[in-house]
Amino acid sequence: MIRKNGSIFCLETPHTTLVIKADTAEYLYYGKKLVSAGNFESCRGLPCKLLSQFGQDDYTEPSILLENADGGISTAFTFSKSKILKEKPQIPGLPSSYGKGKTLELKYVDEPTKVALYIYYTVFEDNDVIAVSSKLFNASEKELHIRRLASLQLDLLGDYSVVTFEGAFARERQKVSRTLNKGVFYIDSKNGASSHNRNPFVMAKGQDGVYAFNLVYSGNHKEIFEACESGKTRVLTGINDFMFRWMLAPGEQFDAPEAVMCFAPDEDGVSSQMHAFIGEHIVRGKWKKKERPVLVNNWEGTHFDFNEEKLLGIARAAKKAGVELFVLDDGWFGNRFDEHRALGDWYDNIEKTGGGLKHLADKIREIGLDFGIWVEPEMISEDSDLFRKHPEFAMRVPGREPTRLRWQLCLNLADEKVQNYVVRAISDVIARSGATYVKWDYNRTLTDPFGKGIPQGEYFHRYMLGYYRIVSRITEKFPDVLFEGCAGGGGRFDLGNLCYFQQYWTSDDTDARKRLKIQDGTSYGYPQATMGAHVSACPNYHTGDSNPLETRFNIACGGVLGYEMDMTKLSVEETEVITRQIEFYKEYRKVLQFGDFYRLGNAFGGNVAGFMSVSKDKGTAVAVVTVYEQIFGGPAPAVKFKGLDPSSVYEVKAREQANYKKAPCFTAGGGFLMQGNVFLSDIYEDTQRRENSGCLYSRMFLITKVKKEYS
Ligand code: GLA
Questions:
Q1: Considering only CA atoms, which residue is closest to atom 1 of ligand 1?
Q2: Ligand 1 center from residue 565 Cα (angstroms)
Q3: 422 closest CA partner among 372, 477, 459, 383
Q4: Do 705 and 643 form a contact (C-beta atoms < 8 A)?
Q5: Confidence class of residue 192 from pLDDT cuts 50, 70 and 90?
Q6: Which of 70, 84, 340, 689 has a 20 to 30 Å separation from 274 between CA atoms?
Q7: pLDDT confidence of residue 69
Q8: Of all protein residues, whose CA lies closest to atom 12 belonging to ligand 1?
């Protein structure tokens, strides 16, 4: 709801209030919902601005920086008008949130140049996340250059610590907390993607609670925090201004990507708001709320070494265990016998598929599984027919040796001809195979950003616009297909991608110990139904460590479950264990994938970690509790559950796991389960430690309400 009183706008979400004074471009309040509005003007102190510019008496990080037609960089945007829009406006060419909600449009004009800046705030009726975006319109008669246009500026008062999610390949989204000292701190990405290294989801933790921010964008981004001497903390998020210089001709507009923000008393509150927002206003299409199939993917099991017989063997074994979807990963096309060649040649390798994609897909369907396919559409190998025919499609600087990563180059997606080729080629793969699932991979970063005729300062963003044009056309063409994004694991896991792909491969590291942290870190900003999570074989391909099959399953239940192994190699006992796992998963899939998600313990720094998913009515919950190591003589591991009804009685029953002799069961009040310590008395098991080099101790609990009121 948006209420107006003169130039003051009060934006209300179910639990928060944002008050904006439009004529002075100020925030008067943002935080916990205000019961009554009162007189905001009388309690104004330090101005918290929603836009900041350079060239006036302000030397803080600006939200907007232009090279004007007059040769100067000074701007003086002043208030022009405001409007409340009934519908949320679309952002041309870019992904953005959707849904019912009113939007406040604010217009500021730099009078000398007639350039107009529009800032939009959308308030969804059902959700606490506020979407913010900016647009610049050049109403002058001369061109100008944009050097920075932040998607969102929020000024906060007081001291904050910043929480970011950082990492690398196979180590994505590790939680990092820092105290902000006076000065500027920023994180960014320059490699063309939202990156493995620094996710655009960030939090600022202060005395009153936690502010969280994310960007609906998959390219270079920058999140700036400036703790000013005045006591103000500025937060800016948007496209990275590194190498950014965008020419705006007269009559043209530039749209910055959408940013989102929310406030909650604590980190759990932030996660639950962000999860609900993504589930309702970012993820779309048929799969939005639909339970996701249990899949088997052949990558870790076979890599490039497969043929029809091998694949059908895996499919049969998987079907027997209860798997629903078979995903054929890299290596099925062109001359792709290894990673040195054939990217771009999206025609069937007859030898490896035993007669083509359709032939293989039909056989998989005869076995009783749906068929899914892997593609890496943004890439080209120099040893490919595509490169031989269209070397100009590759992104490279003429006259220079290109940088090769994983022996491949990127396609120049800023070129419309290349975009059209990709749409045609990939649509054909999906149509001819009848795939109901597509894994869209992206296995290298951009290194030689270049496209003929495209100014360098525009290249990265033009690449993204080309990318979004491709993915929107393909996903619109195949509305029934479930898309899973991937970027060398989770290197482009962001809200931009989740507008097209309903789920994302969280990491190439499937080792349970590493995964627990990667998924935990990811879960701060993203819901479990968007996180691909697979059980793979041991010793683990990346770490060489081993963990019990039941532990691997428990942890994979923190996302969308799959198996990624050669299932023909399983023993009879292992097949039985997996069959029981899948049976359990299917029974509780709805709550696991779409329930309210809570992190348990402390994955980054504690010895006990885990998660639980609770049904909306708080009647059923599935919890996974994991202990990193047995500390001899140390404290007995214990957990506090979350999200239950404190006044109800619950039965807590351990799932029968093949690696534990007993499956304890007890009843207790919801209040006790959340406030008391539930000791994990049977968690240590010697055999597990002896048999597994990277052993985690993990149990899954089914928690069901048995009595409504505790008496
Ligand atoms: C990336 C993905 C893997 C797999 C390989 C195939 O590394 O993250 O899951 O698909 O590519 O080459």
A1: 488
A2: 13
A3: 477
A4: no
A5: very high
A6: 84
A7: 82
A8: 330
Which token pair is 573? 């006992």
Ligand 1 atom having least distance to the Cα of 508: 8
Buried b (16+ CB within 10 A) or exposed e, 501-531: bbbbbbbbbbbbbbbbbbbbbbbbbbbbbbb
This prediction's pTM: 0.97
Confidence (pLDDT) at 635: 87
Only one residue has tokens 């996302």, namely 559
* CA-nearest residue, atom 2 of ligand 1: 488
Please tell me whether residue 293 adopts helix, strand or coil conformation: coil
Task: State the Cα–Cα distance between residues 197 and 487, nearest whole angstrom.
Answer: 12
Segment 562-584, tens digit of pLDDT: 999 999 999 999 999 999 999 99
Cα of 375 to ligand 1 centre, how many Å? 10
Out of 330, 438, 484, give the residue to mutate to test ligand 1, the one with the largest number of ligand atoms within 8 Å of its CB: 330
340 CA from centroid of ligand 1 (Å): 14
Per-residue pLDDT band at 449 (split at 50, 70, 90) = very high
Q: Locate the ligand 1 atom nearest the alpha carbon of residue 439 and give its number.
A: 10
Look up residue 536 and give its amino acid. S
For the cut 60, the answer to whether the pLDDT of residue 42 exceeds it is no
Q: Is the CB of 437 under 6 A from ligand 1?
A: no
Confirm or reject: Cβ of 300 under 6 Å from ligand 1. Answer: no
**Mean pLDDT along residues 237-255:** 98
Residues 6+ apart with CB under 8 A from 670: 618, 644, 645, 646, 647, 648, 649, 650, 705, 710
Chain centroid to CA 293: 20
Q: Is 345 in the pocket of ligand 1 (CB under 6 A)?
A: no
Q: Give the Cα separation of 680 and 691 in Å (integer).
A: 21
CA distance linking residue 179 with residue 193, whole number of Å:
27
Active-site positions read 441, 508
* Chain segment 630-686, per-residue pLDDT in tens: 998 888 999 999 999 999 999 999 999 999 999 999 999 999 999 999 999 889 988
> Ligand 1 centre and the CA of 597: distance in Å?
27
- Whether residue 710 is predicted with pLDDT greater than 90 in this model: the reply is no
pLDDT tens readout for residues 340-362? 999 999 999 999 999 999 999 99
What average pLDDT does the segment 450-457 reach?
96
Closest CA to 111 of 143, 138, 76, 146: 76
Ligand 1 binding pocket includes 329 (Cβ within 6 Å): yes
Q: Whose CA is nearest to atom 4 of ligand 1?
A: 299
Best substitution site from 298, 299, 440 to test ligand 1's pocket, by max atoms within 8 Å of Cβ? 299
Ligand 1 center to residue 401 CA distance, Å?
26
pLDDT at position 709, please? Answer: 67
Cα separation, 480 vs 70, in Å, equals: 52
Residue 328 Cα, ligand 1 centroid: separation in angstroms? 11
CA 479 vs. chain centroid, Å, equals 21
Does the CB atom of residue 328 touch ligand 1 within 6 A?
no
586, two tokens: 């299917």
State the angle between helix axes of 357-367 and 416-433 in degrees (0 to 180), rounded to the nearest 10: 40
Task: Give nearest CA residue, ligand 1 atom 7.
Answer: 488
Contacts of 466 (CB under 8 A, 6+ apart): 413, 414, 415, 416, 418, 419
